[in-house]
Hints:
There is one protein chain. By secondary structure, the chain is mainly α. It has a domain at about 1-155. It has 16 helices and no strands. α4 (about 65-75) crosses α8 (about 125-140), α13 (about 230-240) runs antiparallel to α14 and α13 packs parallel to α15 (about 265-285). The longest helix is centred in the middle third of the chain and has 34 residues, at about 190-220.
Amino acid sequence: MYRVKLNTVSLALLMPLFFGLSMLLLTHYTSGDQVHYWRFYEALSSSNASDVMLLARRHVSSAEPISAYVLWVGASLGIEKNIFITVLNVILLLGILLLMRRHKVPWYVQLLIFSNFYVIVLMTGAERLKIAYIFLVYAALVPGKLGLSLALASPLAHLQSFILLGGLAASRTSDNMRSIFGRMRMNKKALISGFILAAIAGLVFLFVQEGIIRKATGYMARGGGVSELFQVVLLAGVAFFVAKDRVRMGLMLISMMVAIFLLGGMRVNMIAFSLFVYLMILEGRLQHPFVLALLAYFSLKSVFFVRNIFIYGNGFGGWLL
């Protein structure tokens, strides 16, 4: 009982801290993509539900309905944009905190996660991907069909969730891979589950295929992402020394390499890092010195990103490590 009360009090204290930090960052993040998102949000404030997707395509080239309608809810209620996005940030950060506490992640690792470069990017510039991550984080927290439904809905918030789900699915085939190549046997239950998941994912893909194909085609026309594989190779090197299940980690990272080659580095690298951290959480390996060094690097990188926000109004406006 005492522990439950302590957790409740700590969450109550952290919520205003998360809120304040988010507002501080967002009020200074005024350029870059935020110019378009502010125009989109303002347009949504006086629009009908039937106009939302047209406005999303016009202002932010988005075909994902969930993120568009989530923003429409805030705008139509007359909530100032930074306040509404801050509420979403608090929801995201609380979900990450609950996930780490469930798996007994030490407090000093929690600090490194919250100060991570990619977490700061999600809080500031990556609005649609943030909404998708909220679905994904809470999918990892709730059991059964509800968690599965949240995960499968995430691509309707941001297309690149398909990449994350694909990487996660690839990692979960590790037992089957061992059975096939070790004992020449396949788990029928896992095979049926995989087929059902693939069918559901295919149906979701039908709703957003135009955006996926357009982005993939555009990126391949610019030469693909061979030069942007460095971070995933670095993750693979750390995983080789740290991961308990190297097959699972390897399958996930291979799928990320394919995605980077087709779609490019920044967002896919974020997804690869997120999956790497999630698998390390499941294995209880975040305290390993190599992982701590990697987390420390990304926390240092966030310092320069935040500095750019205050100087340029855009985290990517200056130079980063």
